[in-house]
Amino acid sequence: MPIATVNPANGETLRTFDELGAEGIERRLATATAAFRTYRTTDLPERARLMARAADLLEQDEDAVARTMTTEMGKPLAAARAEAAKCVKAMRWYAGHAEILLADEHPSETEVKDSGASRARVHYRPLGVVLAVMPWNFPLWQVVRFAAPALMAGNTGLLKHASNVPQTALYLEDLFRRAGYPDGCFQTLLVGSGAVEAILRDPRVAAATLTGSEPAGRSVAAVAGEEIKKTVLELGGSDPYVVMPSADIDRAARTAVTARVQNNGQSCIAAKRFIVHTDVYDAFAERFTAGMAALTVGDPMADTTDVGPLASEQGRADLEELVDDAVRRGATALCGGQRPADLPRGWFYTPTVLAGITPDMRIHHEEAFGPVATLYRADSLDEAVALANDTPFGLSSNVWTRDAAEQERFVRDIEAGGVFFNGMTASHPALPFGGVKRSGYGRELSGHGIREFCNVTTVWHGAEPEDGA
Q1: The CATH number of the domain where 365 resides is what?
Q2: Same domain, 295 and 190
């Protein structure tokens, strides 16, 4: 795939970039390694000052970088601005909390004595150069939620971004440079996916993090496993959105629309499978379908647009295949199910609700990455849980119920990295984020995220001799 900015709203190639060669990669690896040797000793207040400065600069750049994101991958401009603002928030959060999150931990006096020590503590040290392989769908946020904690922990970063968002990738390198970070602390590698293995195998790279597809995660995990290097993987998702009889159906249906079409439906944590108890199925289906059908599809730069184009022509083709397969096998399109006739240019797809889904349909098990929702009827709580878990993925989940006993049952039994009640899944810097099953492993954000790329060091002191001994 060429490294280029291609406007998904019209298919026009706006700018192309040369791929970094072997010499360029070596130069950046050497620079990142040298930077780590000194940056790792920088105290936390200085790291916080640099991160806060980067946040200030990003806040000033919000409109310009939002337009770049929209141009490169098609998200509505308002959503792009919100993404930039969210990055500012996360950067400031880590600048303000890292010292507490990385503070030494002290076992109890009894535990210290039992270990045979006079004193002991747990100390957090950075690992080194971390390679980040990042996707196009949240081209700023996905990177910042890695970079902010990794840099605050004292690591240095190498970014291999998706090939269709090169200008956003280069902006991030420039942002940290302008903030005053030492040369080499954060660098962008304009390389294709074929270059990742050699970079990851380089002994100067200590660890890797990847957000992306399941095949990409398998590839990186396999190489890292051979090299015995730490990885964090955030892969696909097919999140359930469960609606039980006690739910506020109007709110649940309105929120469901946003939960499905956020980022033009191209979000790992977007709700995709809508599992509704039979007692409220008809009411929810009517409201949800009406809300999806009422969305405005069009120019992502326009304030009136709700859903822009998919990021690539191949992405739309993949989505169409899933919908067409389901319809051929008996599913009903309650709305949508085709390209919008009034938008012949660009990679647009009409918001779609499919009902009558059966296990023999590909969309029952595969992730639909676009504005397509699947609707299921459940006769009981047990059936709702079973349907929610009938997926190879386990990123997050949404459950609408006001019954406390039902809530505890869903917390106990849903196989996912998060359970969000009476609202939609969203990431926040203070809360851990990640999944189970084929959605990956490890956690981003919160204290868990900043400690993923730390050497958790036990510091143990033997008994001190008494004076005169």
Answers
A1: 3.40.309.10
A2: no
Active site residue 454: no
For the chain, how far is it from start to end, CA to CA, in angstroms?
72
Number of domains into which the chain is organized: 2
List residues bridging with 232 in a β-sheet. 209
- Helices assigned H by DSSP within 202-248: 214-227
Among this protein's residues, is 234 annotated catalytic?
A: yes
| The pLDDT of residue 146 | 97
CATH number at residue 107: 3.40.605.10
SS3 label, residue 237: coil
Question: Same domain for 294 and 377?
Answer: yes
Shared domain for 150 and 84, answered yes or no, is yes
165 and 199 both lie in a single domain = yes
* CB-CB neighbours of 259 under 10 Å: 24
Can you list the positions of beta strands (E) in 294-338? 332-335
pLDDT digits (tens, 9 = 90+) for 2-61: 999 999 999 999 999 999 999 999 999 999 999 999 999 999 999 999 999 999 999 999
The answer to whether the CB of 365 falls within 8 A of the CB of 393 is no
Query: Which structure tokens are listed for 179?
Result: 């903030």
The reply to whether 33 and 116 lie within a common domain is yes
Nearest Cα neighbor of 288 from 340, 237, 232, 355 is 355
Q: Looking at 87, 268, 335, 454, which residue is catalytic? A: 268
Please give the pLDDT value at position 467. 58
Q: Is residue 427 part of a domain?
A: no
Both 103 and 9 in one domain: the answer is: yes
Contact by Cβ (8 Å): 406, 385 = no
Domain that holds residue 401: 239-421
Q: Contact at 8 Å (CB) between 131 and 160?
A: yes
Residue among 72, 234, 367, 444 flagged as catalytic: 234
Residues 218 and 273 both lie in one domain: no
**Residues 342, 201 within the same domain:** no
Nearest to 209 by CA among 255, 258, 155: 155
- Per residue in 380-435, pLDDT (tens digit) is 999 999 999 999 999 999 999 999 999 999 999 999 999 999 999 999 999 999 99
